[in-house]
Automatic annotation (TrEMBL):
Residues 83-210 form the OmpA-like domain. Keywords: Membrane, Transmembrane, Transmembrane helix. Pfam families: OmpA. InterPro entries: Bact_OuterMem_StrucFunc, OmpA-like, OmpA-like_sf. This is OmpA family protein. PROSITE patterns: OMPA_2 (PS51123). It comes from the Bacteria. The keyword Mitochondrion does not apply. Residues 188-219 are annotated as: Disordered. The keyword Amino-acid biosynthesis does not apply. The chain crosses the membrane at residues 18-42.
């Protein structure tokens, strides 16, 4: 073997090594590219599914509000109740005298007019009604003589009164429950009489029915 042959063998070996390293590098880059591509596609798929779910949820919420508006078309047109964000609001002065939990005749009549459309609405949906009582932020006067200890108790009793009235008027008892918020969650300023009047209210809000936790245990 001549010197030139030895040089050719060395050069050939070096070239083969370079190509081998280059091939490994390209294979590594290709593998990394594939992983990045898979990650990007998975992320896009997840975002698409999330967007689809949000759109479906918004559509369902819109359909629920439209169904509620149709059910309450008459009392809404008469201005006896208001509907905002899927919550039916009734002025406390329509339902109760000041610091009282006893329904006024006008309030009882209004609840009776709401019971039938609400029962019809619930019959076609897996929902329940949360009846919430709210007050302004003024404290009870002369608590030693007052019927209620504080605004929490007053709002609770008013919510219970409305709940019982709806049940008596035909709303299924399993589809309605009471909640109390006292002076929390005001919708207007308590600095003025008009704002305090708006805060003294009862709201009726449809929401998804709770799942029966005992169903799985009985199987």
């Amino acid at each position: 073997m001549t010197a030139n042959d030895e040089i050719d063998d060395v050069e050939g070996g070096s070239t083969a090594t370079v190509w081998a390293v280059f091939g490994d590098l390209m294979a590594g880059l290709l593998g990394a590219f594939v992983l990045i591509l898979v990650f990007v596609m998975a992320t896009q798929l997840e975002l698409a599914e999330r967007l689809k779910s949000e759109v479906a949820q918004r559509q369902a919420e819109q359909q629920r509000r439209e169904a509620l508006e149709r059910a309450l078309a008459i009392p809404l047109a008469a201005g006896r109740v208001s509907l905002a964000d899927g919550r039916i609001a009734i002025s406390g002065s329509v339902l109760f005298a000041f610091n009282s939990d006893e329904l006024q005749p006008e309030g009882r009549q209004l609840l009776q007019s709401l019971a039938a459309p609400l029962a019809t609405y619930l019959a076609t949906r897996d929902e329940v009604l949360m009846v919430s009582g709210f007050t302004d932020d003024r404290q009870m006067r002369d608590s030693s003589r007052a019927k209620f200890a504080d605004n929490w108790e007053l709002s609770a009793q008013r919510a219970l009164t409305v709940t019982r009235a709806l049940i008596e008027a035909g709303v299924p008892s399993k589809s309605v429950f009471a909640a109390a918020f006292g002076s929390q969650r005001p919708v207007a300023s308590n600095q003025e009489a008009a704002g305090r009047a708006l805060n003294r209210r009862v709201e009726i809000a449809p929401m998804p029915a709770p799942k029966d936790s005992t169903a799985g245990a009985k199987k």
